Amino acid sequence: VSNIHQNKQADVVALVYNFVDTLSHARTDVEVIRELASDDNAYRRVTATWFEGSPLRKALKWAAENGFKVVLTTDHGTVNVNKATKVVGTRDLTTNLRVKNGNGMSYQGKHSFVVKSPEKIGLPKHHIVDEYIFALNDHFYAYPNNFNHYVKYYRNTYQHGGVSLEELIIPYVVLDAK
User: Which CB contacts under 8 angstroms, 24+ apart, belong to 123-128?
Assistant: First the structure.
């Protein structure tokens, strides 16, 4: 962002800015962030406060002043997870809290979108009996061993990888200079 002025003659400039994603992960791992962004409204306020003085805002202002059209988007959405659902499987299950891939999994079907033939929807199939499960709504997967620890640690955190509208619909806005 600090070198954006060097791109004044470029037809297209792409910037990747990970602050919001980093903040959502920090909300899981850092107690101070968890307190500052204790719910959805507080999370939005923290993000807005950061944005006001951010290099990203300065870059957007520079782009507007120099007549650039800006397309602002994200690579995925997130969902605030609050309910754990148990999953059991082999050690090679994926680590994501919202999606699991493997074979021989045991899970609660009512909290999962199940894909038994991943190749039919364009997902990779590593073994003959591979399947995918995606957590629904505000659920996340936790293993039975240390279940209560995982529930306490991940409840009320932002996660991605599931199939909720919040995670799948990719918003964007086109900003034209005045």
Answer: 126/101, 127/103
- Is 74 inside a domain boundary? no
Bridge partners (DSSP) of residue 157 are 81
- Digitized pLDDT (tens) for each residue of the chain, 178 residues in all: 777 778 888 888 888 888 888 888 888 888 898 899 888 899 999 999 999 999 999 999 999 999 999 999 998 888 999 999 999 998 888 889 999 998 889 999 899 999 999 999 999 888 888 899 999 999 999 999 999 999 999 999 999 988 888 998 999 999 998 7
**Claim to verify: residue 83 and residue 146 sit in the same structural domain:** yes
- E-strand stretches of 28-120: 70-73, 79-81, 83-88, 99-102, 106-107, 112-115
End-to-end CA distance of the chain: 21
Q: How many CB atoms lie within 10 A of CB 52?
A: 7
In a domain, 170, yes or no: no
- For residue 36, give every residue at least 6 positions away whose Cβ sits within 8 Å of its Cβ, in sequence order, or none: 42, 46
Count how many domains the chain has.
2
Q: Enter the tokens of residue 47.
A: 């993000």
Same domain, 55 and 116: no
pTM of the model: 0.81
Question: Are 111 and 148 contained in the same domain?
Answer: yes
- List the structure tokens of 57: 């805002």
